[in-house]
């Protein structure tokens, strides 16, 4: 997995995009969880699978999907597959388009994804090549992407739901702080002053997964770091990340990653495999 953090080549000013590309020949995974970046995943070669909770979407070569902020997902590919994950800092656009960050975007555009795919390719090209016109071309390309998202990917049913989106943001933050502990639906509902049934339904409609699945995703994501960088036992990792026991941790890990925690740790020791590609360093 290659990660590219981008700054202007001349000024050093951060650029509101970053890229991850998996081009290895072996089966591979990219694991992301719950940050404030909007993600676009593009299948460059072969077959790519996007997993979001219990839902899995298959992307063939040239297809892409848009994933909203705070959405936990995993990407895996078949042998020989290549995929690109394009991360966009939506806050960059807020000074030009009110509440761009709070907008909810559909997974696929009204006019198909061909136009957006071409825009992503142009931005990637400018990031790699540079040149005297680099900054102007790059910013123009990024603005084109932002405009395309607003015009053809905005989910109208959530267009005026800023308060509801703020609820999701507060819930995500609460889970991020308390994932090590048992988390009850009543606690979350009280935190955002909503009844449990409404919160559960609203969260699933907006995020595409249940609250329980979201909590599990957070716990799994944090467990990757412990497996990779510590010598804690599997049971210790499970308990530190909020799982009731090693059995429930194994079951969730295998379901999401198609391997066991021990197998992942062995891969990291050998320098193969990458499930935490979305973690910023």
How would you describe the overall organization of this protein?
This protein is α+β, with helices and mostly antiparallel strands and 281 residues long. It has nine helices and nine strands. The longest helix has 19 residues, at 134-152. The model is unreliable at 1-5 and 7-13 (pLDDT under 50).
- Counted beta strands: 9
- Straight-line distance between termini: 14 Å
Spatial arrangement of strands, main beta sheet: 1-2-9-4-7
Derived from helix and strand composition plus strand pairing, the structural class reads alpha+beta
Helix count, per DSSP?
9
Shape: globular
Which terms would index this structure?
281 residues, alpha+beta, 4-stranded antiparallel β-sheet, 9 strands, 19% strand, disordered N terminus
Q: How is the topology of this model organized?
A:
Layout: E1 2-7, E2 14-22, E3 28-32, E4 38-45, E5 48-52, E6 55-59, E7 64-67, E8 73-77, E9 82-88, H1 114-129, H2 134-152, H3 162-178, H4 185-192, H5 196-207, H6 211-229, H7 234-240, H8 246-257, H9 261-270
Antiparallel strand pairs: 1-2, 2-9, 3-8, 4-7, 4-9, 5-6, 5-8
Helix pairs in contact: 1-2
